[in-house]
From TrEMBL:
Homodimer. GO terms for molecular function: glutamine-fructose-6-phosphate transaminase (isomerizing) activity. Residues 44-184, 217-358 form the SIS domain. Transmembrane segments: none annotated. Keywords: Aminotransferase, Cytoplasm, Glutamine amidotransferase, Repeat, Transferase. It comes from the Bacteria. It catalyses: D-fructose 6-phosphate + L-glutamine = D-glucosamine 6-phosphate + L-glutamate. This is Glutamine--fructose-6-phosphate aminotransferase [isomerizing]. It is found in: Cytoplasm. Its EC number is 2.6.1.16.
Length: 368
C-alpha cells in the first residue's frame, strides 16, 4: 500500500473509515455557532427570510443526499422542498419562482449538469442559491449566492462515501437553521439537535465496528447477480444509496424500492435467489416495514436486515439481522449509510473488481 493509504487497501475503505472525523469536522461550525445563518454566507439571513420553498438539484449520490434532506426540511423547518436530478431539470419548462432557494449539492463542484441546471434557474430569475460543496472555490460555489463547504477532505474513490455523509450533516444543519429562523425550532429542540450532532461521530464509529459481521454477508452477496434494497420514509434514500454503491463497484444489478411499493411490481422478482436488504431501524414506519418483510419471506426471499435493538428482530430461517447502534433520532439515515457502504466494499473485494476505479465511471462528470 502507498504512503497515502496507510493501513488501508483502497481509498474507498480509507474514506469509509474517515467518516467519524469528516463528520465531526463538518459539524464543528454548526455546533460552535449553534446554527447561526451566517454559517451559510454573509447574506444568508436575508436570503432565508425571503424564501418560502426549496428546490434541490444534484446528480448521483449527491441527489440521494437531497432526497434525504427533503424529510428534514419539511419536518424540522416546515419548508416545502422538491428534489430533482439536475440533468432533468435543465431541459424542462420550469415555472420560475423567485422566492424559492435553489440548493445544489456536489462533492466536486464541477458536475456539468448540476452547473447548467443552476445557470438555467438563474436565467429564469431565480437568484437565491446555495451550494453545498466539498471543493473550495470550484465552479458551483463560485456561481452561488451562498455556500457551505463540507469538510470531508479529498475524496479519491469514484464511489462517493464520506462526501455523502458530510453533505447530509450540512443539509441537517440547513434544516435546523431554517427551522430556527422560521420559528419552528424552540430552544429545547435546538439543544437536542446540537446534542445529536455531537454524538454522531461516536455512533458512526460504532457502525464501523460492524465490519466483521458485514464481511460475512458480503461473501454471500458476491455470488449473487441481483439484489433488492428496501426502506421507507427517511430510510428509503439509504436503500437507494445502498443499491447504487453495489451497482457501481460490484457490477451486481441492484434496485431500491420504498417497501410499500413492493406489491406494485418488485415482489414478482423475489425468490430464493434474490437477497433483500432492509433498512429497518426503529422509526415510525417500522411496523409497516415488518409487514412488507413478511411478504418477502412468504415468497422464499432471503432477508438481510439492518436494525437497531429497539426494532426487536431475531434471526430465523431466511432472516439475517445485523444490529446497528441505537438510532440517533433524526440523524439515523447518516448512521445507516455506513453498513451499506461496507457491504458493497466487501462484496467488491470478494468479486475482485477495481473498487476505487470502477469500469465506465468517472469521479467527476464534466461532460454531458
Ligand atoms: C459521479 C461520481 C459520483 C457522484 C456524482 C455526482 O457519478 O462517480 O460518486 O455522486 O458524479 O458528483 P458530484 O461531484 O456533483 O457530487
Amino acid at each position: 500500500a502507498s504512503l497515502e493509504l496507510g493501513p488501508y487497501n483502497h481509498f474507498m475503505q480509507k474514506e469509509i473509515h474517515e467518516q467519524p472525523k469528516a463528520i465531526a469536522d463538518t459539524a464543528e461550525v454548526l455546533i460552535d455557532d449553534a446554527f447561526h445563518p451566517e454559517i451559510f454566507g454573509e447574506k444568508a439571513a436575508e436570503v432565508f427570510n425571503d424564501i418560502h420553498s426549496i428546490k434541490i438539484l444534484a446528480c448521483g449520490t449527491s441527489f440521494y443526499a437531497g432526497l434525504t434532506a427533503k424529510y428534514w426540511l419539511e419536518s424540522i423547518a416546515k419548508i416545502p422542498c422538491d428534489v430533482e436530478i439536475a440533468s432533468e431539470f435543465r431541459y424542462r419548462d420550469v415555472i420560475a419562482d423567485p422566492k424559492q432557494l435553489i440548493v445544489t449539492i456536489s462533492q466536486s463542484g464541477e458536475t456539468l449538469d448540476t452547473m447548467e441546471a443552476l445557470k438555467y434557474a438563474h436565467s429564469l430569475g431565480q437568484t437565491h442559491s446555495l451550494s453545498i460543496c466539498n471543493v473550495m472555490e470550484s465552479a458551483l460555489p463560485r456561481e452561488s449566492e451562498l455556500v457551505f463547504y463540507t469538510r470531508a477532505g479529498a475524496e479519491i474513490g469514484v464511489a462517493s462515501t464520506k462526501a455523502f455523509t458530510t453533505q447530509l450533516v450540512a443539509l441537517f444543519g440547513l434544516s435546523v437553521t431554517l427551522g430556527i429562523l422560521k420559528g419552528h425550532v424552540d430552544a429545547a429542540k435546538q439543544q437536542s439537535y446540537l446534542e445529536q450532532l455531537r454524538q454522531l461521530p461516536g455512533s458512526i464509529q460504532h457502525a464501523l465496528n460492524l465490519e466483521p459481521q458485514i464481511v460475512l454477508w458480503a461473501q454471500q452477496f458476491a455470488k449473487k447477480s441481483d439484489a433488492l434494497f428496501l426502506g421507507r420514509g427517511i430510510h428509503y434514500p439509504v436503500a437507494l444509496e445502498g443499491a447504487l454503491k453495489l451497482k457501481e463497484i460490484t457490477y451486481i444489478h441492484a434496485e431500491a424500492y420504498p417497501a410499500g411499493e413492493l406489491k406494485h411490481g418488485p415482489l414478482a422478482l423475489v425468490d430464493e435467489n434474490m437477497p433483500v436488504v432492509v433498512i429497518a431501524p426503529h422509526d415510525k414506519l417500522l411496523d409497516k416495514v415488518k409487514a412488507n418483510m413478511q411478504e418477502v419471506s412468504a415468497r422464499g426471499g432471503e432477508l438481510f436486515v439492518f436494525a437497531d435493538l429497539d426494532s426487536n428482530f431475531t434471526e430465523s430461517e431466511g432472516v439475517h439481522v445485523i444490529r446497528t447502534p441505537r438510532h440517533v433520532g433524526d440523524l439515523s439515515p447518516i448512521l445507516h449509510t455506513i453498513p451499506v457502504q461496507l457491504l458493497s466494499y466487501h462484496a467488491a473485494l470478494a468479486r475482485g473488481t477495481d473498487v476505487d476505479k470502477p469500469r465506465n465511471l468517472a469521479k467527476s462528470v464534466t461532460v454531458e
